Amino acid sequence: MSALFRERLTASGEAVELVLLHGWASDSRIWQPLLPHLRQHFHLTLIDLPGFGRSAEASLGSAANLIEALLPVLPEKALYMGWSLGGMIAAELAHRHPERVAGLVSVASNARFVASDAWPAAMPVETFEAFYREVCEAPDKAHRRFVGLQCQGDAQARELRRSLPECQAGPQALLGGLDLLRTLDQREQLLSCPRLNVLGEGDALVPSAVAPQLQGETRVYDGAGHLLLRSQAARLCDDVLNFYRQRLVDVLPAVGADRHFEKQAVAKSFSRAAASYDQSATVQRRIADQLFSQLSDVSLPPGARVVDLGCGTGYSLPMLRGQFMGAQLTAVDLAEGMLAYARDHHGDACQQWLGGDAENLPLADGCVDLLFSSLSLQWCEDVQALYAEIERVLAPGGCAFIATLGPETLWELRAAWQQVDSYVHVNDFIPRQRVERAIASAGLQCEWVSGEECLYYDDLRSLTRDLKQLGVSNVNHGRPQGLSSRRRLLALQTAYEGFRQPEGLPTSYQVWYLRLEKAPHSSRELQENL
Questions:
Q1: What is the end-to-end Cα distance of the chain in Å, rounded?
Q2: Where are the alpha helices (DSSP H) in 193-281?
Q3: Is 280 known to be catalytic?
Q4: CB–CB of 141/134 below 8 Å?
Q5: Would you call 203 a catalytic residue per the annotation?
Q6: In what order do the strands lie in the sheet with 445-457?
Q7: How far, in Å, CA of 237 to CA of 231, rounded?
Q8: Are 330 and 307 in contact (CB under 8 A)?
Q9: Contacts of 137 (CB under 8 A, 6+ apart)
Q10: Element (H, E) at 512
Q11: Is 22 a catalytic residue?
């Protein structure tokens, strides 16, 4: 079995493990409308099944082999939500490995996809076999027909057709998925975990008439078809959360996010430093200017939307306004104090001011033509979520210009502290390999330029004063509690002196400049527009 693509999106604090499994001719992007709401309550694991989405080309194989391939990339115990074929796979996993599945939410999924005399509320055998042959002989035509069937019966059918992610699946995966739909029969499986079934009243693929025959609780959504997970995302999220609270809260406890530093501590630290930040932001201004220089050959049509993500005190906003006079400029920052300072000092530069997390942006899909971000994204640990969000909000053909810091930033200070004690004193940033993987997983094209900036200080006190004014406090888990003793500070000073150069005590910043591009309209979108 080929390697599986797995994406992990963590909530900001303690939350419950939730695994999302997509359906046939789909991938994990199908869940996108639900993610902002779900991430408030759950740590999410999203999987692309073999041969689908960003997983390598392969056949799904037998149910048993597929389950064994999934287990290594899944949490030890979780709530599962599966849509269509994904619901049947989740049920199979719960049957074979009940210790791994605390509960199951089955969305637009049947116990048997193909009808029989004893199970008539399913797809007729003749219809299924004709569709199977069509997938073999004319896969593009078959997929267009399948999209129509998924949208059928939904009050938002037209919007659903336009918003569906393009199918990324090879012939092996498509036929292997149909083989599973043909053979899986879960009518006699009695699961030991609680189960919630959610069906669409107008579903053309899984008839809502099957509701009384399904094990567990069942809800039927009026005015919904097979794609109810997208057309009624908010209602589904509420039902999932209530299902957990009512049935699983005692058997599946919340767990903390796997993070090195606390994001809210980052926001508070920068908010406190808003008024003093610009006094010490020498390197930060240099880097912002260097990033801005990359926009010299970029032109945007009137009305284009430009976003300064992590705007800080608003240093770059006047430059962006001057470069893109006819654009709609939006400033976004997690730190409320920074956003308020920027609004007070550069209020005329922006049309919109938004408080928000880069890993969960308060922006609509495809609404941003150009995203600018200087020295804020290094505070995002969930880089999979970060770059997936950037890809989501960028319009087709849109660009993101990013300056961020690498893990060698402040390496002299880190090395000096390591000679003093074993605590974590200097913030650790994400290594390049993880960032590159996240960008590739998001489907963004990347141009990457590495750089370095260095400041020199007369003494350690001047350096620590600047860092404090910038809001660069130690927010790592594992940091020492309380103030450092005079003896430890003297030891740090002695250790740091070992790095002194003729210009003074060096403080290095590892800087990465990224230009990201989202692909233009897909071929399917172009065909629909013609």
A1: 40
A2: 228-231, 233-243, 263-272, 274-280
A3: no
A4: yes
A5: yes
A6: 352-355, 328-333, 305-309, 368-374, 394-405, 505-517, 445-457
A7: 12
A8: yes
A9: none
A10: strand 505-517
A11: no
Q: How far, in Å, are 35, 330, 381, 406 from residue 307 at the CA level? A: 21, 5, 21, 23
Both tokens of residue 270? Answer: 């920068």
- Write down the catalytic residue from 95, 143, 226, 346: 226
CA distances from 134 to 47, 131, 139, 146, 176 (A): 27, 5, 6, 11, 14
Tens place of pLDDT for every residue, the chain, 530 residues?
347 888 888 886 788 999 999 999 999 999 999 998 898 899 999 999 999 998 887 778 899 999 999 998 898 999 999 999 999 999 999 999 999 999 999 999 999 999 999 999 999 999 999 999 999 999 999 999 999 999 999 999 999 998 898 888 988 999 999 999 999 999 999 899 999 999 999 999 999 999 999 999 999 999 999 999 999 999 999 999 999 999 999 889 887 655 555 677 788 888 988 999 888 899 999 999 999 999 999 999 999 999 999 999 999 999 999 999 999 999 999 999 999 999 999 999 999 999 999 988 999 889 999 999 999 999 888 888 899 899 999 999 999 999 999 999 999 998 988 888 765 567 778 899 889 988 987 889 999 999 999 999 999 889 988 888 887 755 444 444 444 567 888 888 999 999 999 999 999 999 999 999 999 864 334 333 33
How far is 16 from 40, CA to CA, in rounded Å? 10
Cα distance between residue 308 and residue 334, in whole Å: 12
Q: What is the pTM of this model?
A: 0.60
Given 55, 84, 271, 373, the catalytic residue: 84
Q: CA-to-CA distance for 269 and 277, rounded, in angstroms?
A: 11
Active-site residue, from 48, 203, 333, 369: 203
Nearest-CA neighbor of 170 among 57, 84, 62? Answer: 57
